[in-house]
């Protein structure tokens, strides 16, 4: 039984302040954070929807939304003869809702009048900060076939990871009977669910909520009428267990929550693997983003190994190893980049600007000559001088100043930072 695509809307939750991703979220919202050299985090759920033939999407946000607005406006322009759209819904004060979003459910509640302007039978609720590739058609078909009120995408996890998630227990019909938020390890033996033989062989006996939900429209409207509940994972789902038919849709592919600097860094560096878990080179699951009219990247005696190089780069570096290099990056002679993510630049400096910078003793946009950068994230539009040494690792304590931050041993050079010649972080 096929789900009617035209009767589905997608609601993508932009998240809160994104404090765990600071300083990447200092001047942008979490969904607008660049990933993979040329994409934004919000491109992932939007692309999953488009690959599933779902073309009506709302993105809910309230913090630092200017760059996100610009990205979506410049990227997702559909035919005027179609009903497709990606709309930004920022928190707004109204007579009924005088406050900002107080949680995931409250965000959906405050935006309900906008959703109800459209005809739909099902609401697909997604997170804006996860990395995965999923065909939502299969999830929708299971939801309809089983006549569920709510369907939750679940991920089999092992005993080590289970305490980090909301864990669901299912019956023989894959319906959720009970829910526990971040259970203590000693409680886990009572929370095993039926999983595939492959998952059992990997020691994954517990079902974790992925924060991906399908709601029937009527039920969503009913639930949103209760203004006391603020969050899906902490309130609405636990309260619905035992009272509504909640289906577990097991997903066994790659999925990661981009919740902090460490997971963000590992997700990006993982893209450089020979067979990455998240496949950017998939004909059937393309990741869409803003089309840019950039020239090919140019190299000058640069040894590149296991790295992703985006468009429009000018690379005179000595070595780039296991790194992601973002659009319009400029890297000077003799520089070595290892195990790092360089986000690139939003613009090129022309020759006149570069001559003026040199004349005035200012660093050029990009990374200078004879630098060494390892275990680091270089945010956009940075000016890093010559002979700069940055060596991140577990030997470094967490720290932050106006130029950079250190989190979990990863050095994050802040957006637009100017790092002088001979600067050392080690």
UniProtKB/TrEMBL annotation:
Its EC number is 2.7.7.27. InterPro entries: ADP-Glc_PPase (IPR011831), ADP_Glu_pyroP_CS (IPR005836), NTP_transferase_dom (IPR005835), Nucleotide-diphossugar_trans (IPR029044), Trimer_LpxA-like_sf (IPR011004). Residues 10-271 form the Nucleotidyl transferase domain. It holds the Pfam family LbH_GLGC. Keywords: ATP-binding, Carbohydrate metabolism, Glycogen metabolism, Nucleotide-binding, Nucleotidyltransferase, Transferase. It is an enzyme of class 2 (transferase). It comes from the Bacteria. GO terms for molecular function: glucose-1-phosphate adenylyltransferase activity. Signal peptide: none annotated. Belongs to the bacterial/plant glucose-1-phosphate adenylyltransferase family. This is Glucose-1-phosphate adenylyltransferase. It comes from Flavobacterium xylosi.
């Amino acid at each position: 039984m096929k789900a009617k695509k035209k009767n589905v809307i997608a609601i993508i939750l932009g998240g809160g302040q994104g404090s765990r991703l600071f300083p990447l979220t200092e001047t942008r919202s979490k969904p607008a954070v660049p990933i993979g050299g040329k994409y934004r985090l919000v491109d992932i759920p939007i692309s999953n929807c488009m690959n599933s033939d779902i073309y009506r999407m709302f993105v809910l946000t309230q913090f630092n939304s200017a760059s996100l607005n610009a990205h979506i406006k410049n990227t997702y322009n559909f035919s005027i003869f179609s009903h497709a759209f990606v709309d930004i819904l920022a928190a707004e004060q109204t007579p009924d809702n005088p406050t900002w979003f107080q949680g995931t459910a409250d965000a959906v509640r405050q935006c309900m009048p906008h959703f109800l302007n459209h005809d739909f039978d099902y609401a697909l609720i997604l997170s804006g900060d996860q990395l995965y590739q999923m065909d939502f058609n299969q999830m929708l078909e299971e939801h309809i076939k089983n006549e569920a009120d709510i369907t939750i995408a679940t991920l089999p996890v092992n005993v080590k990871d289970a305490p980090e998630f909301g864990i669901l227990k299912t019956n023989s019909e894959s319906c959720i009977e009970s829910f526990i938020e971040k259970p203590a390890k000693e409680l886990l033996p009572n929370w095993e669910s039926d999983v595939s033989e492959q998952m059992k062989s990997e020691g994954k006996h517990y079902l974790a909520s992925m924060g991906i939900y399908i709601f029937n429209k009527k039920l969503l409207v009913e639930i949103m009428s209760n203004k006391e509940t603020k969050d899906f994972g902490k309130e609405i789902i636990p309260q619905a267990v035992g009272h509504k038919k909640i289906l577990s849709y097991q997903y066994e592919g790659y999925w990661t929550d981009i919740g902090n600097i460490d997971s963000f860094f590992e997700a990006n560096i993982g893209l450089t693997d020979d067979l990455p878990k998240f496949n950017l080179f998939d004909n059937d699951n393309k990741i869409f983003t803003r089309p840019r009219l950039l020239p090919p990247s140019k190299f000058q005696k640069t040894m590149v190994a296991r790295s992703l190089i985006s468009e429009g780069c000018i690379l005179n570096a000595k070595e780039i190893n296991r790194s992601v290099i973002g659009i319009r990056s400029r890297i000077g002679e003799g520089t070595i980049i290892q195990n790092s993510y360089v986000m690139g630049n939003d613009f090129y400096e022309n020759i006149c600007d570069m001559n003026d910078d040199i004349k005035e003793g200012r660093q050029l946009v990009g990374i200078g000559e004879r630098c060494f950068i390892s275990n680091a994230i270089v945010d956009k539009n940075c000016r890093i001088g010559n002979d700069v040494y940055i060596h991140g690792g577990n030997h470094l304590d967490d720290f932050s100043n106006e130029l950079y931050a250190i989190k979990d041993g990863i050095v994050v050079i802040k957006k637009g930072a100017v790092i002088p010649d001979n600067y050392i972080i080690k």
